[in-house]
Amino acid sequence: MEYTIRFEKPTTEDVLLLLAEGEAYGASLYPAESNHFLPLDAVCAANIHFAVARTMDGTAVGTGAIAVFDGWAEIKRMWVVPSARGAGISKAMLSTLQATAQTMGASVLRLETGVLNVEALALYERFGFARRAPFAEYRPDPLSVFMEKDLP
Predict the structure, then answer these.
(1) How confident is the model at residue 22 (pLDDT cuts 50, 70, 90)?
(2) CA distance 41 to 26
(3) Which secondary structure element, helix H or strand E, spans residue 52, and what is its range?
(4) How do strand 144-150 and strand 130-132 relate by DSSP bridges?
(5) What is the domain count for the chain?
(6) Which residues sit opposite 108 in a β-bridge?
(7) Are 114 and 144 in contact (CB under 8 A)?
C-alpha cells in the first residue's frame, strides 16, 4: 500500500471519523478513566502538530500527533485503521513525529498507551522507548504504560 504522511488540521470529516474510530477502540479496551485521548479542541492547539497518513487516492488511514512542550514532546492520537495495518504506516508516522519533535527542539519524546495495546508497545520498544513513571498530569494507572526516549 502506498501512502503519504502530511501535517494537516484534524477537522476534516474523514479525519474526525478516524479519531472517533480510535476512541471507540480505546473505549472497548479500557474504562473511561484510563483513556487519555487528547480532545478535539486541544488537538487544534498551537503546540500540537497533527499528521495524517493517506493512500494515494486520498483516503485517510492513519493519524498521529505530537504535543510540544518546553524541551520535550508527547506522542498523541496514534491510530491506523485495521485494514491498513502491516503496511509500515505506524513506523513511518512515528518516524515523522520523532523528526518533527527534534526540529521543534524537544530532547525527550514521551507517550502513554494502554497495557493491552501489545502491538503499539512492541513498536515503541523497537523505536527505543523505555518504560518510565507517569509524567506531566498523568497519575499512576494499572492500565497505562508510560514511556520515553531521549532524542539526539
Answers:
(1) very high
(2) 19
(3) strand 48-55
(4) antiparallel
(5) 1
(6) 72, 150
(7) yes
Q: Which domain holds residue 98?
A: 3-150
pLDDT of residue 152: 87
pLDDT of residue 61 exceeding 90, the answer is: yes
* Contacts of 69 by beta carbon, 8 Å cutoff, 6+ apart: 47, 106, 136
Where b means 16+ CB within 10 Å and e means fewer, 82-95 reads: eebeebebbebbbe
Share of the chain above pLDDT 70, in %: 100
Locate 115 and state its grid cell: 497495557
CA torsion angle 31 32 37 39 (round to 10)? 160
Average pLDDT over residues 101-106: 96
Cell numbers found for residue 144: 497505562
* Cell (9 digits) for 50: 497533527
The phi and psi torsions of 112 (rounded to 5 degrees) equal: -130, 135
pLDDT tens per residue, range 117-130: 999 999 999 999 99
CATH number (domain holding residue 87): 3.40.630.30
The pLDDT of residue 132 is 98
